[in-house]
Write a structure and sequence with these properties.
5-stranded mixed sheet, globular, 17 helices, two-stranded antiparallel sheet, Cytochrome p450, alpha+beta, single chain
Length: 458
Amino acid sequence: MSTIAIMTTTEYRLPDGPKTPQLFNGLAFLAARDRYIRKLQRRYGDAFAMRMPGFGQMVVVTTPELVKAVFTGKPDVLHAGKDPLGEILGPGSLFSMDEERHLKERRMLLPPFHGERMRSYEAIIEEEALREMAAWPEGVEFASIESFQAITLRIILRTVFGAEGRELAELEKLLPPMTTLGQRLVTIPLLRRDWGRRSPGARWKRMHATYRRLVDKLVDDHLADPGLAERADILALMLRAQLEDGGEVDHSDVADELLTLLVAGHETTASALAWSVERLRRHPEVLRRLEAEARGERNELRLATTEETLRVRPVINATLRKVMKPFAIGEWLVPPGAWVVTGIAPLHKDGRFHAEANRFDPDRYVGKKPDTYAWIPFGGGVRRCLGAAFAQFEIDIVLRTLLRNFELQPTSAPGERESFRGVAFAPSKGGVAVVRRRALDPPPLVEEGAEAEVGARA
């Protein structure tokens, strides 16, 4: 009697896509990523497959239905901790974690980015905005993104790192060039290697060593602080959580996570603020309404304006998931090892999902929340940006401060193009602004009789 071995194989099915070499695809993507993706979408539809250098097989999806399938995918099927950014930030970064470790870390970090703890940072946000805006020139053009980078950096260093004094000053000097270099290393993996003292990889190592020294000092100072339990910064919360678990504080993991929170909330939020300036200067009717709103305590239109700005000018234009087990999406079955990409920018600009998609119209979100899977500037699912609520809160307070203290001058100049800066998309000219300081409101007039009465009471 013979035994017949029956072997089954999984039949993977990918959507159609370009058959061009991956090097060509990569160069086309770097040269004009949004235009290239829109071109492929028009030719192949809402999902298409392509090969990219450093990644191999990719499947790009661009509808809410397909995006939902990705964002609700099981954590053991789709991983996000295998991307280049995680490699740069280190193994202790959320960007390097998946499954249970990722969920545990996320649960620990999420509370301070919501609720009363988040709102307790309002005074710091306003203080740093006023501090930087005090140096703004009047009546001349300047790139607003530089100021917004300074504001968002100091906010993170104070609210997240709990830095002050010498460490605050040294980190404020070190981190801008360090994050700029890190963005280049994410984009071009070959540069990460140490090719000699002057090479980008070697410079990154030196900068990172300095960063570790400063953060280790912050951690040690926090641990030695008898008032650690009362500290409001997020580093203190992280340390308390690790100590409560009965474990020792891992300085390396803490440093990686702080750097992650910096990268996720510094350049991106500054870019969103610069885009806000760029859009509002070209929509004076919205600007006038925002100025009127800022004189009071309401913020419905301001929040809607932020949401609309993030729709028309998303600072992150895609998310990545690596397929670990066969992944069914739509009519296709994607094999392990491939990547699934959600196209944020093409989805946001699709008239099927956003009425008059090319029009800047904050009123579409006044009193109405954006659709969970058609508006995805912060990604979604268990990998949604941890600081999304904090970023929107920060943008709201900084814009309020700007509108209350300055007149932002409208312009008829063409809109600024989108420029990729390694992590985020920013206005190509930096969100050019022209402002004039508002005169202080005069004291209320008092009639002669009333003035005499007040004097008598005094």
